[in-house]
């Protein structure tokens, strides 16, 4: 375990955040950091290691849960920040208890050690616990990208260790009750929680919504694809690793769009109809030998009590592209926009060449991951609105919808 030398006392930060308005709090906190001598030439000595520190105008980012290189979402977040794709975010710390502990000698452990050495060469410090962190030397942002089941505990630890804002990966928690408790805890501490629902800021979502608004009586369908092999072994591994289920995992981004932009919540749903011809539900053994039941593909339409009709389609084995399309009142498709579009495909090819063994969906969503992180990091520093970024309140509504829909759709597909 790594223990950092805590040489700075900046407990003023959380007090300032609680007692002042948000913008004033961030300003006061930043002044306190500077006045307290916490940053000298943007470099701090911790133990015997010189670590690059967040500079003026940057959040001090703590990545909680890195995962395996080329596979973990946390790893890709780290790569983007190390490559300085997010100007307001300085990746100063990575908390990775699995690969720095029991998982270090197992699958992926050797690859992680190699990547850890490269990241440390770029000034990133690694530890196994948030409790090992020194006091913040800049507004501290926790980016929690670990196992969903661990998120309630990790949020508590992030608050206790000086994080003034939290970026929480979807779906946030295993259950609605846990996510609501997390929201209450964060609010009581004066800590804002924003969600990594990157599709809320995607170009294809914006373009499709804008077009649909010009056509009375039109309907939007959001389509999400992953590129798993269509085999029992591949899908069984997927079902076990994402045991919360497709609607709380892969399709949760689309449900967040519905909650954010289409007034979809459990109190406003009039009807849910599965497309039985497209949809498929299977029970398959995972690597543990236990059976898991989930959708390998699903399509459904929601009608709300306020008159909105919107559809979602998700396919674990459908490829790498996500897209949305618009149909007119007669059901004819009149518009479709892909992610990536032609403009972005060249960028995807560059990333494929740079990271040939990484998960393909990282590349198609690369610009959107950057956008969300940058907006959240800037918000952490100066309190500016994080436009389009979902709050934990939206996440609660989204998770409620996922829990509501799952048994209804399962029953329709029996």
TrEMBL record:
InterPro entries: Gfo/Idh/MocA-like_OxRdtase_N, NAD(P)-bd_dom_sf. GO terms for cellular component: cytoplasm. Transmembrane segments: none annotated. GO terms for biological process: NADPH regeneration. The lineage of its organism: Eukaryota, Sar, Stramenopiles, Ochrophyta, Bacillariophyta. The keyword Mitochondrion does not apply. Coiled coil: none annotated. It comes from the Eukaryota. GO terms for molecular function: nucleotide binding; oxidoreductase activity. This is Gfo/Idh/MocA-like oxidoreductase N-terminal domain-containing protein. PANTHER family: BINDING ROSSMANN FOLD OXIDOREDUCTASE, PUTATIVE (AFU_ORTHOLOGUE AFUA_2G10240)-RELATED (PTHR42840:SF3), NAD(P)-BINDING ROSSMANN-FOLD SUPERFAMILY PROTEIN-RELATED (PTHR42840). Residues 119-197 form the Gfo/Idh/MocA-like oxidoreductase N-terminal domain. Keywords: Oxidoreductase. It comes from Ditylum brightwellii.
